[in-house]
Amino acid sequence: xxxxxxxxxxxxxxxxxxxxxxxxxxxxxxxxxxxxxxxxxxxxxxxxxxxxxxxxxxxxxxxxxxxxxxxxxxxxxxxxxxxxxxxxxxxxxxxxxxxxxxxxxxxxxxxxxxxxxxxxxxxxxxxxxxxxxxxxxxxxxxxxxxxxxxxxxxxxxxxxxxxxxxxxxxxxxxxxxxxxxxxxxxxxxxxxxxxxxxxxxxxxxxxxxxxxxxxxxxxxxxxxxxxxxxxxxxxxxxxxxxxxxxxxxxxxxxxxxxxxxxxxxxxxxxxxxxx
Amino acid sequence: xxxxxxxxxxxxxxxxxxxxxxxxxxxxxxxxxxxxxxxxxxxxxxxxxxxxxxxxxxxxxxxxxxxxxxxxxxxxxxxxxxxxxxxxxxxxxxxxxxxxxxxxxxxxxxxxxxxxxxxxxxxxxxxxxxxxxxxxxxxxxxxxxxxxxxxxxxxxxxxxxxxxxxxxxxxxxxxxxxxxxxxxxxxxxxxxxxxxxxxxxxxxxxxxxxxxxxxxxxxxxxxxxxxxxxxxxxxxxxxxxxxxxxxxxxxxxxxxxxxxxxxxxxxxxxxxxxxxx
Lengths: 275, 277
Known about the structure:
heterodimer, A: alpha+beta, Thiol Ester Dehydrase, Chain A, 2 domains, B: Thiol Ester Dehydrase, Chain A, 5 helices, globular
C-alpha cells in the first residue's frame, strides 16, 4: 500500500488568512489526520498515540489553495531504517497537481514497514539551511496557554495548534517590521511562505504555558526567513521551532514584490547572526 | 411554560460565511445542536439525548439568507411524541421577526411522555415531500475523508451534527469542483451553490474521536438551475452508514442573489454524475 488517500475535503473561507489563501496551520490540521490514518494503516497508531519521540516536517508550498479549493492528501511511508520517514502530498482535486509536499520524520523510531510498503519520495529535497549562532536577539512574538481547541485526537497540543501559534508569531513579527494589518490592506502586500521546517521536541498538554520568540534568519530582495522558537517559559526548555521561508507577495498580481525601504530598514535591525 | 421557547440567540460571525457569501449550513447546525439540547432539557429528555443510540432525521428549509453580522434567534418546541419524538425549530431574523429557516426533527423510535401543554399545535414550517433516493449508489464519487477530530465533537463527546455537516459541506465543494463549479469559477463567474433544503439522516450508532469516515456523493436531480446532491458518510472499515444528506439547491448569481441556469459545460459534466433513480 505505498500511496494511500488519507484525507479529502476543501478549504473553507474561514481557514484563509490576510494573504488571502489557505493558511498554513490548516494544511497542518489536515496533515495531522493524514498522518494518523497512515500510521493506522502501517500498524503504528499506538506508537503515535503514545508519542515521546521528536518529529520533523519539511514542507514545500508550491501552489496556493484558496477559499473553496477542493483538495486531497496522498500519504506513504518512504523510509523505515533508523527514523521513520512519512511523505504526504496535498493534491489539487481539480487539476490533479501536487500543491504541497510534507516530508515527515519520526526521529529514532525504528519501525520497519515491509519493503513493498515503501514508496518512492518524488517531492523536493530539503537542503540544510544555515542556523543562527545566537538566539539572544529573538524578540517576543507570542505567549499563551494550551487551550482545548489546540488539542489533537490524542489529547496533546496538536500540530495545527502549534502552527496556529507560529502564525500568530509571524503576524507579530511582520508588524514589527511594518507589515501591519493596515499596511497589508492599503499597500496590498503580505507575507507568503513557500517553505516550512517544523521541529517538534515534545507536545505540551492542556493548560501548559508557552511563549514564542522570533528573529530574522535571512533578508533578500523579496524573501525573508523567520525563525520562531516555542519554549516553556518556566524552564526555558524548547517545545518546537518553525523555520518559515517566504516572500513578500503582491496580493493582486500574486507575485513576489520587493520590500519597501522603510520595511527593509526595520527588518535589518532584526537580522540574526548566522553560522 | 409556553410550548415555544427561545433556545438560542446570537449572530453570524464573518468567519462563518462561505464562498456563496452567506451563513454556511454547518453553522446553522452548530446552533441547532445547542437549541436541541436546551429544548430536550426543558422537556425532561436531556438524558435521552445524552445517551443517544437512536436515529435522527433533520428536514430543513432555508427560506431567506443570513449574512455576516445578521442577528437571529431560535424558537423551539415539541411537535409530537407519537411514533417517536418530533421537534420543531425556527430560525428568526431578530431584526424583522420573520422566520427564515425551519428544522423539522425526528428522533426515531424514542418513546417519551411530554405534557400536552408542551406540545405545539401551531407548527408553521413547510411540509417536506418524500424524495426518492437512488437505489444504486455504485456511481457515487469520493468527496471527503478524514478522522473525527476534537473540534468535531458535540457536548456529549460524539461526532456532533455540526461536525457531520461540515464534512458534507466539504463534499459539496468537491462535487461542485467535479462539475466545474471550482473556486476560480465561483470567483470569476460569480456563481455559487445555494441550498434551500436539507434532509439529514444520522444513524443510531454514532462515531467518536479518531474514528475514520469517508463521504461519497452523486447527483440525484439536475434541473435548469437546481441540483440535488446525495452525500453518504460511512465507516470505510465496515461500510456501515454513519449519515446521509440530500442537499437540494440552486446555482446562484452571487450579485443578484437569484438562481441562474447552469452553464452548458457544467451541465455536461453534471449529467455524467446523475444517479439512476
